[in-house]
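hey so u asked for the seq, here:
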Amino acid sequence: MPARALPWLAALAVAMSSPAARSLDGTAPPAPRAQQARGAEDEAAEATAAEALAKLRKGIEERTAEPIKAALIQIDPLWKQLSPTTTQKVVKAVSTMFSKLRPQIEYDVDLRANDPNRVDRPDDEPDKYAGDSREAVLECYRTAVGLLADKPEGPATLLPVLKLPHVKEWPDVRALVLQGLGFREDPALLKDFEAYLTDASPAVASQAARALGRYFDKPMDVRRRAVGSMISALEAADKAVAKEAGKLREDDPTPAADYRASIYVGFHEALLSLTRQTFDKTEDWRKWYSEHGKDASW
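ran it, structure tokens below
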């Protein structure tokens, strides 16, 4: 063989000796150590998540808040390592939690006026009514919103929570969900936030406004629509105040006036964030928006 043919034989020998090369029998080379380590970490995360998921499901079944909260906290740092299958199991369990975990008193007796057991049932089961479990349940909800709000599955999981019957009557939960989703700064949720700008609860309406206020660096068409919607909501609140004016003593604020005062800060901070303008009166906001709403930039 000519001497000049030897270099490629040497190169072939070097290549075959490389860890990346296949063995002579055609089997794949061993995975790099970093890849093996990641695989082991993912397996460990899956195992830990499976244990936490079992605790979560048991807590939901037994309607006990503390194990649910602990399981959600345990799952949170593992999220990026979980398989799609495990992720969906967690999401399903969280949806079930929002539906089934409610303050204890709601499970056992309807306390509305037309409930024939309204007077005597609490005396029959004093332990169940020893304390209000709303705060413990709210903590579980808060932990679940913190877990899912910034995840891809967040809106599809949390928006339906707003429609649950017991959540419709619980403003703290609706405000919490809107706050969590607001941190996504996602214009795709603009319509969802707009729907709550005139909510009967000032806390809910304020969180909807604050969520819109986080669109300050979004395209002008998004900011323009958000500002217009908030001004319209303020005008509706002003009309309610005018309608109730004179119904109480002069020094006593009406419910509409209380509501208007409660939403003032949230709405005006959001409008300031989007427009870099500040006005006290709604008519001044409307005047500015009529003159500058179509400007290329603010």
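Residues 43-110+131-184 form one domain. Residues 108-118, 120-130 have pLDDT under 50 and may be disordered.
lmk if thats what u needed
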